[in-house]
What we know:
Number of strands: 17
Oligomer: single chain
Low-confidence stretches: none
Largest sheet: 15 strands, antiparallel
CATH architecture: Beta Barrel
Strand content: over 45%
Distance between the termini: 16 Å
Amino acid sequence: MSYTKPLVNKWGGEWRTELNIGDTLEGVTEFYQPVGVKQRFFIEPSLSLQRQKIDFFDDLDRRRGDLKVLGVGGSIQGGMLFGRWGELRGGLSRSKIKLSFTDDTLGLAALTLDDSFLLARATVDTLDSLSFPTSGGFITAEYQVHDTFLGGDTQFNQSTLNVYKPFTVGRHTLGLGTRFSGATGRDANLIGTSNLGGFLALSGFSRDELSGQYAVVALASYYYRLNRQATLFDLPLYVGGSLEAGNVYQSFDAISLDQAIYASSLFAGMKSPLGPVFVGIGYNDKGNTSLYFSIGSFF
């Protein structure tokens, strides 16, 4: 769930707060402030909270129980806008992270780290909707450098790439997308892991059920609008499905189609005053089946 308060000040400032509750708890509150006469630039301070449980693997790629992560932090970011289609941003973040291990043989009950990192991100977004996009495209690339500046304890680098493109004929829409993320460095297997699992991200698993130093997934989705567009009070209704393939890996060399997990889903959805609402069922070739209900963007 989210809350946005626009026009906080005469310069167009906006306060945004979002909270996701489930197997992973995530919360962020941020203040977006445009800068300049044409408001082509911005600054964005934020505070965040995260709690999650992931698989922990040692240096020999052996699973050693669960790793529970609790993090509290803040960041300051800024950047430049390119019309309504693009953005470049960079920033600095600092977090306090507590790690708890369930495998007693590791000799570590808990560990507290200070994580400081620089980030750079480029985004191109021409989608006509985040709910059920029918035209345009989306691509974002991000790179993070975690190091010992500002008192940080962690050392690793992380890269992320997301791409999505819909194709529409009449009421039929085919969407193709992919996501890649990976981390290298001393602490990549501690807090630099990437997650998969959940609706449209290897359906059948619960959200973020799989974790590894690398994550790769490809998506093909199809949805059909059941009703015609209304002049007033338009309430689009959709049915559709997806095919997905991917997995998480502990090293870049391990990435291969032989290790891919294949998944699929069937869903129905609608645009509502609360945002897009989805109900669906997912299945994968590992034998996992899950039912989904969510309110949020399509991808």
